[in-house]
Amino acid sequence: MENPAQHTGSLSLLSPGFLTTVQDLGRDHYAHLGLSPSGAADAVSLRLGNLLVGNPPNAPALEMTLTGATIVFNSACPVSLAGSDFGATLDGQAAPRWQTLFVEPGQILRCGHTSSGARCYLCVGGGIQSETILSSSSAHLQVPLGKNRSGPLRLGDVFELSGTGGSDRALTVKPAIIENFFKPGPLRVTEGTQIRLFTATERSLFLSSTYRIKEESNRMGLRLFGPPLNHAIREDMTTEGVSLGAIQVPPSGEPIILFVEHPTTGGYPKIANVISADIHRVGQLQPGNEVRFEFVTLDAAISLLHEREALLKPENCLQPT
Q1: How many other CB atoms sit within 10 Å of the CB of residue 290?
Q2: pLDDT beyond 60 at 4
Q3: Which end of the chain is more exposed for a tag (fewer CB within 10 A), N or C?
Q4: Count of CB atoms within 10 A of residue 3's CB?
Q5: Whole-angstrom distance, CA of residue 225 vs CA of residue 205
Q6: 3-class secondary-structure state, position 15
Q7: How many separate domains does the chain show?
Q8: Which 3 state secondary structure label does DSSP give 204?
């Protein structure tokens, strides 16, 4: 981005919404200490939103879930909304997603209930100031970290703006990019480490079934309702490390997609793992949504991740408004 701008001041929460937290791209390299990364549930939307206001991809933003926040800006700054449609308005006028917006002191952003997907991100030029712990500002709802911002935001919370960075350019994410990242279709998965505990019939059932997201789902994992996978029980199965996107099958036979605040170890068989290029789509699933799965090879998963990263380069995904 060009022409860094100065944006001092703050923003205040007049209403926190259902579940609003501070998130960046999370804290990697701490699984050996029992700490999963947390971070944005939909990292692609966060990264695009940050690009629109001239921020680094990892700049902290506000992640809103299902019902959005109401925010008053106490200074002029560029902002963007990225992710699901929360019917946002700025002083009563529609506030479009996927483009740079320039707010003035005293203006109020209201985000309502989602009409598509689960999460929307508010990114602010220069980023918001929030406590950094283990190289990240992300809240972790399962493992409270630090004295501030470790959980859902509350009425009256105030965030200081960094005062540096950002951009005064008006930009829009290319529609074709949004369509590419959020097109419907099955979640692509690679084979899980215990896939051979499942018979050919069970694997076929997994691929042919439509699963529904349960109400009990959260940032730790998405529980699925559908035909149970009655895998072979292994009493001697050793608890082992688990990864983001792993699909484990407990004794009930109903799969669970481990998500950004997942336990770092587990003892249930894993039939598959959502590929990195599709994990942001998991972050936009809400209770009641339906999902299907499709196996791809490891080589294909790596190739698809490279394609995603290429599309996220500013020259490929942005255009002037």
Answers
A1: 12
A2: no
A3: C
A4: 9
A5: 13
A6: strand
A7: 2
A8: helix
- pLDDT tens per residue, range 150-174: 689 999 999 998 766 677 899 999 9
Cβ 120 vs Cβ 64: under 8 Å = yes
Cβ atoms of 70 and 102 closer than 8 Å: no
Q: What Rg value do the Cα atoms of the chain yield, rounded?
A: 20
Domain boundary at 145, 172, 199, which? 172
- Per-residue pLDDT tens over the stretch 210-224: 999 999 999 999 999
- Calpha distance 165→57 (Å, rounded): 13
| Res 168: pLDDT | 85
Residue pair 12/158 in contact by the 8 Å Cβ criterion? yes
Task: Return the amino acid letter for 153.
Answer: L
In degrees, to the nearest 5, what angle opens at C-alpha 98 toward C-alphas 94 and 99?
A: 75
116 and 200 fall within a common domain:
no
* Structure-token match 């587990």, residue found: 266
SS3 168: coil
Buried b (16+ CB within 10 A) or exposed e, 112-136: eebeebbbbbbbbbbbbbbeebbeb
